[in-house]
Design goal:
465 residues; alpha/beta; Alkaline Phosphatase, subunit A; four-stranded antiparallel beta sheet; 19 strands; 28% helix
């Protein structure tokens, strides 16, 4: 090789290296989804009984949202997360398969049993640009043939419940689900670290029936209760298991040297369940009103935290309203993938908020649709600016709240603000028309004496309260 050839060769190598260094590396994404975790349950949101040091540290290292929303129950939120579309477009406005009140005033719509396979999930969009994808935990969007493996998730372990039998875990005894899922998540991070990956860990915690380890139950049973909070030892122990999982997953990212190239997003699938159908207390969403299965703030406002060192400033707080639909376009944007042209998108990218917590989004209205009996009666709702309207279908009544002055939704302003209430009601009806929302109808079997009786739409994976 002569000198000129050597120089040319060296120049080509240097150019390739320079272009490689200039080309940004696609970030890893880890989405950790809690089940039924309330807005007021974490230490970083003000809880004085539950101990969540790892999640609290995540908030200190990243961005904490104070007005982040989800659907009012499980499957609807999982639908809009995976699809980027409002769940009302699919009719998945209740958990799958749902339950019914056979003698109630209204007959609510039948809930489809699965998310259509035609939907392109964010996992499919990221896999198309080279991401390795892994899904561990609760799916609740369909049974055999409609699971995460059919929706773009390449490595899948699907399970529910707060314990797992040996047949699932491959061990000799029953294991705690949070511990099992965490082990699999850490293994995924370790083995997939050489290329961009997308990981979703969907915990069953803190869903009922409540259980925890004997050690944690003893710990919280001996702890003085916090004033004004149920301080349920089993709930606190189960939440600590979830918190420990978050800590181990984040530690695995840091240990692998991936922290500055990994977005970790932690959130819940709906508000906390304050009481079981039996009336037994679980948690409290105070100062917010309502619980899972309602359209009050306690049912739809959730904890949400994002960490990405070097990209998200530590200790930030974002008060701009956001919703779980927004995760799809956010993840697609940061992965430098493209949104599908074959389906609508109802969310907006949260990238501006990740860069600047004081930023706003080009949207002024959020919508919810719960045409079912759960912990409330069938209703729709919207939030426009600080105004929140709830329309109840049994009696066509309206409730209007100014969340800036009344976040606890105690003062119904519908009678004092009739023009505003009418305007928002019309906007809500127009939205239902745009997305094809299904409505309840008068029930020919209505029996006032039996209206509260609970039935099930069918037995299947995901029955819940």
């Amino acid at each position: 090789m002569n000198f000129i050839t050597l120089l040319l060769w060296a120049g080509c190598v240097l150019g390739l290296i320079t272009r490689s260094l200039a080309q940004p590396v696609s970030p890893n994404v880890i989405l950790i989804l809690a089940d039924d975790l309330g807005w007021a349950d974490l230490g970083c949101y003000g809880n004085a009984f539950n101990e969540t040091p790892h999640i609290d540290r995540l908030a200190r290292q990243g961005l904490r949202f104070t007005q982040f929303y989800a659907g009012p129950v499980c499957s609807p939120t999982r639908t809009n997360l995976q699809s980027g579309q409002d769940q009302a477009r699919f009719g998945i406005t209740q958990h799958i398969p749902g339950h019914i009140r056979p003698f109630a005033r209204l007959a609510d719509p039948v809930v489809p049993r699965q998310l259509p396979l035609a939907v392109e999930t964010f996992a499919e969009r990221l896999a198309a640009v080279g991401y390795q994808t892994g899904y561990f935990g609760k799916w609740h969007l369909g049974g055999t043939g409609f699971g995460p493996a059919q929706q773009g998730w390449q490595t899948v372990i699907e399970c529910q419940g707060n314990t797992q039998p040996p047949a699932v875990t491959g061990s000799s005894s029953t294991r705690r689900t949070a511990d099992f899922l965490t082990e699999k998540a850490v293994e995924f991070i370790t083995t997939k670290r050489s290329r961009p990956f997308l990981l979703q860990v969907s915990h069953f915690a803190v869903h009922i029936p409540l259980s925890t380890t004997p050690e944690l139950l003893k710990k919280y049973s001996g702890k003085p209760p916090a004033p004004g909070y149920p301080s349920n030892p089993a709930y606190a122990g189960l939440l600590e298991e979830l918190d420990e999982s978050v800590g181990r997953i984040v530690e695995a990212v840091d240990r692998a040297g991936l922290a500055e190239n990994t977005l970790v997003f932690f959130l819940s699938d709906n508000g906390g369940i304050e009481h079981e159908q039996s009336g037994r207390l679980v948690t409290s969403n105070l100062p917010l009103r309502g619980e899972k299965g309602t359209l009050y703030e306690g049912g739809v406002r959730i904890p949400a935290i994002a960490r990405w060192p070097g990209k998200i400033a530590a200790g930030g707080v974002a008060a701009t309203p956001a919703i779980t639909h927004d995760l799809y376009p956010t993840l697609v944007e940061i992965a430098r993938a493209t949104l599908p042209t074959s389906q609508p998108q109802d969310g907006l990218s949260l990238a501006p908020l990740l860069r600047n917590p004081a930023a706003t989004l080009a949207r002024d209205t959020l919508f919810w649709h719960l045409p079912h009996y759960h912990h409330s009666t069938p209703a729709s709702a919207l939030r426009r600016g600080d105004w929140k309207l709830i329309e109840f279908f049994e009696d066509n009544s309206l409730q209007l709240y100014d969340l800036a002055k009344d976040p606890a939704e105690q003062i119904n302003l519908a009678a004092r603000e009739p023009a505003r209430a009418a305007e928002l009601r019309a906007a809500l009806a127009a939205w239902r028309g745009r997305v094809g929302a299904r409505l309840p109808v008068p029930n020919p079997n209505y029996d006032a004496a039996r209206a509260s009786e609970l039935g099930r739409a069918g037995k299947g994976k995901g029955d819940e309260l």
